[in-house]
């Protein structure tokens, strides 16, 4: 397809124009019906194989779980070695040490921070707590849905508001949809799977207005991919006493997906409540904590990972655009773009070449979500993609 086609021409040719209109229509209808069942956007999560994990070691390019392809820092590895000496001891002061490092950066007090084995635990705790008496969780139509799926199991309804045309959270529409039964607003920024961000000033203003009425949960799993100068600093809202909960993870820029470390920033009372729905902070091992402390201090490694991610993301975005694909601009370590074949066929052919990706389907339009790997992996991805699409 010629890259000279306009966006509208391409959308029309690919049928995406109709799909995007119907997406908005359907989602509006769903949004208008608080009782409508929440339809997961993760239609193809690991649907590509009976046992995807069995296939992982054989992949040439592992681009399906938004991991850090560069691994953990040398400083974290050294801390892990040291931690072996302390494996017989319960972690204790390591919790205070890591909170003392994080708190000043966020402009909060250590008591505003709760550590967890990955941020998933915080999402799950919030899901249970906010869903236990029923009510509604308000969010966006295309987003990360672990918290939402869990909340639904525990009795909440999910009201998912359509995204803006450029695949961003529509904060004014979310605000307009707040009703007395809304227990929580869930925002993912940068969003997964779209990779989009909402302007920081808009998000801040939204929180200031909404949080006094309804708690706002902001899942900032991908925040470390912002350039430091542009990074939202929503900890100050927590410091000001707002009922805002921030969820963070070391799984992304720090490469701790397997080590498991995350934290929540919120009011101490809220943390106490949420802690009651977790296994407690001691679920985090001393090994992970010591590695986390080392990695957090290793700003040079984080800068390196961010820069490499930006480079490989720009390369992939351009290569796809040159082939006539409309990539949604991403601020994270993955890219979402519409494809022109069935998700299963696409996945099968990519996996057949040893390239692990994920797909999504929104109202009949298939998308590829590819994590940003190393430059070599992205070259393998582009090469394999060209073979699949011809
Ligand atoms: C938006 C978002 N939130 C939370 C998580 C959970 O990450 P973890 O439990 O590894 O911290 C993920 C994982 O990919 C994610 O994409």
UniProtKB/TrEMBL annotation:
One of its GO terms (molecular function) is transaminase activity. InterPro entries: Aminotransferase_I/II_large, HistidinolP_aminotransfase, PyrdxlP-dep_Trfase, PyrdxlP-dep_Trfase_major, PyrdxlP-dep_Trfase_small, TAT_signal. CDD domains: AAT_like (cd00609). Keywords: Aminotransferase, Pyridoxal phosphate, Signal, Transferase. Residues 63-383 form the Aminotransferase class I/classII large domain. It holds the Pfam family Aminotran_1_2. Residues 1-31 form the signal peptide. Belongs to the class-II pyridoxal-phosphate-dependent aminotransferase family. Histidinol-phosphate aminotransferase subfamily. This is Aminotransferase class I/II-fold pyridoxal phosphate-dependent enzyme. It comes from Spirosoma terrae. The lineage of its organism: Bacteria, Pseudomonadati, Bacteroidota, Cytophagia, Cytophagales.
